[in-house]
Each structure stands twice: as structure tokens, then as C-alpha cells.
Write a structure and sequence with these properties.
- This protein is 27% helix and 29% strand.
- Strand 7 and strand 8 form a beta hairpin.
- The longest helix is centred in the N-terminal third of the chain and has 19 residues.
- The radius of gyration is 29 Å and the shape is flat.
- The N terminus is likely disordered.
Length: 214
């Protein structure tokens, strides 16, 4: 009798082992959701800043403000202070260029790609043309060089107030109000206002107009 009981228990255990639980997708009859590829993290210099989208979506104020901060920095590479450079130089048409020393900026294509993540194509073309026949940035033997230059911020400009306005389904405006100061740089005598459109063009968000406010 003991033999038959033991055999019955073994048969029962064998049956349970062959009837394991189905994966969740099979139990419900639904397919598992497709994997979503995580976005690549930005580098320290923000060089993966392009906001690529399949279609326009509503942005947060923080996203638009962050894009403005990156755009202000990049625009300043042309109209405030050029990218850092090292001791290696090259003479081109009588002009002394210095090799750019900045992470992620190995050649002119790198600079152009980064700018295209922030500004419209027309604006990028205008920026890279700064300097005319002796542009600020150029490739020398496939390496990015710069004509180093810089200026101080306008001392007649004070604090700035930045506001983000949703102006359309695929458009925002970054409104900047800057205090104007007296000759001593202390008393506010007025304000200067700017509005920079931030729009969804093709597959990413870019500024279609921009300038330095200082």
C-alpha cells in the first residue's frame, strides 16, 4: 500500500512540473510591450542637447529654459568669447588660428551638428559664416581651429528676467527682459525686451531667431 501511495505522489509532482505558470503576456493573451530605448545621457558640455522627437509634444518650462541656457552659451562662442583653445597653432592666409580644446568638438562637423541641435539651419549657416573670408572656426587638416577672441559683457545691462510663453501648438517664445543701468552701473533706468521663438522644425526643437542680450 505504501508503494502505491508513493507512486501517486511522484506522478502528481511530475504533472505539476510540466504545467508551470505562463509568462504574463501569454496569460493575458496580450503581447508584451515593445522595449523603449533609453535616451542617451548628455555629456558635461551638453553636447547631446538636440531634442529629437517623432512629433511635437508639449514641453515643460524647465525644458525650454534649459534649451535657452544652452543656446545662450553656444551663441556666445561667436559673439562673446570663443571656444577654449590650446597652444597648437596654424597660420591660414596670414591669420593665426589655435586648436580648439573642448570635449566633443574635434572638427567643424561636430560644431555644426551641435549648433543644429539648438538653432535653425539658416541661423547655423550665418554663425559659421562669421568672419567671412577668415571665419572664426575652420578645419585645418580635419581638426577644429579658432581665431580666439572675446569681449566683456555690456556693463550697461543688469539683471534679466526670463519667461516662457506657449505661443502655438509647435511654438514657444522665450521672453527676456533686461535691466538698463546708468553709467555707474547701479541705478536701473529702463528695460530692454527680447522675444526668441523656439519652434518644432522637421524633427527637433530649435530657436529660429536669437541674439546676445548682454
Amino acid at each position: 500500500m505504501r508503494f502505491w501511495r508513493l507512486l501517486a505522489v511522484l506522478l502528481c509532482l511530475w504533472g505539476l512540473a510540466g504545467c508551470g505558470a505562463l509568462p504574463a503576456a501569454e496569460q493575458s493573451g496580450d503581447e508584451a510591450p515593445p522595449a523603449v530605448e533609453a535616451a542617451a545621457p548628455e555629456t558635461d558640455g551638453g553636447l547631446s542637447a538636440a531634442m529629437l522627437e517623432r512629433e511635437a509634444r508639449t514641453l515643460t518650462e524647465e525644458e525650454v529654459r534649459a534649451a535657452y541656457d544652452r543656446a545662450e552659451t553656444a551663441y556666445g562662442w561667436f559673439y562673446l568669447e570663443t571656444l577654449p583653445s590650446g597652444p597648437q597653432t596654424q597660420e591660414v592666409d596670414g591669420w593665426t588660428y589655435e586648436r580648439v580644446d573642448y570635449p566633443g568638438m574635434e572638427n567643424l562637423a561636430d560644431l555644426q551638428a551641435y549648433l543644429r541641435g539648438l538653432f535653425s539651419k539658416e541661423m547655423v549657416d550665418d554663425l559659421l559664416a562669421v568672419g567671412g573670408s577668415h571665419p572664426l572656426y575652420r578645419d585645418v587638416d580635419g581638426v577644429l581651429y579658432v581665431l580666439p577672441s572675446g569681449r566683456e559683457r555690456d556693463p550697461s545691462k543688469g539683471a534679466a528676467v526670463i519667461q516662457v510663453e506657449h505661443t502655438g501648438e509647435t511654438a514657444y517664445s522665450v521672453d527676456v527682459t533686461v535691466d538698463l543701468l546708468d553709467e555707474n552701473g547701479e541705478t536701473v533706468t529702463g528695460v530692454e525686451c527680447y522675444a526668441f521663438p523656439y519652434e518644432f522644425v522637421e524633427d527637433h526643437w530649435v530657436f529660429t531667431d536669437f541674439r546676445m542680450v548682454y
